[in-house]
Design brief:
Length: 200
């Protein structure tokens, strides 16, 4: 009687996992170039790229690390949510690399709205996991995502102030710019909340 050997099948990583890895690699690569090889270029001066080289990868990896530490789930990893949360960091660094913040008047405002929408989509996907069995109102989901986005916008502006605004050339216009950035970030997160609520 022949014995059939059963070999365990390796589970391949989903596309969103590879996308997350690429987003991280492209962001870190640009940060390394800006910090060590092109620091003298105008678009990188006074932008705190030394601090970003440490903080951006840490913030991009914070949510996945916390997820694994809290849930210890290796089978149903929310890679899509992680990718949405990582995407804004790449967009921000790429905007500096291409000098879009200094050459395109609306780039900064668009970034705060669109990037916070992406962050909100990631946060919304995380907080609505397993929602099928609950009866959470859609308005509650939308406001929860918007609230998370508003808190992130506040912390982001505080970080920008300590990183390169205080004592810099942008201090005179920092108050107006900070208010508009927080409003745009909150509106972007609210839009993400509405999208997630409708999807849920």
């Amino acid at each position: 009687m022949s014995r059939t050997e059963v070999t365990p099948q390796r589970r391949s990583l989903p596309a969103a996992a590879w996308i997350s890895a690429v987003l991280l690699a492209l962001t870190v690569g640009q940060l390394l170039v800006a910090t060590f090889f092109a620091a003298g270029l105008e678009q990188f001066e006074g932008k705190g790229f030394g601090a970003r080289l440490v903080l951006y990868p840490a913030m991009m990896l914070a949510v996945p690390v916390i997820w694994w530490l809290v849930t210890k789930d290796r089978r149903d990893v929310p890679w899509a949510a992680f990718a949405w949360i990582m995407l804004p960091y790449l967009i921000d660094v790429t905007g500096n690399t291409l000098n879009l913040y200094d050459t395109v008047g609306w780039w900064d405002e668009a970034n705060h709205f669109v990037n916070w929408m992406f962050l909100g989509l990631g946060a919304g996907l995380l907080i609505t996991r397993g929602e099928r069995g609950r009866a959470r109102p859609r308005w509650e989901i939308a406001l929860l995502v918007a609230g998370i986005g508003a808190v992130m916008a506040i912390f982001w502006e505080v970080g920008e102030y300590y990183a390169f605004i205080r004592g810099g050339t942008e201090l005179a216009t920092a108050y107006t710019d900070t208010l508009s950035d927080e409003v745009l970030g909150t509106l972007g997160a609210l839009l993400a909340g509405l999208i997630i609520a409708r999807r849920t």
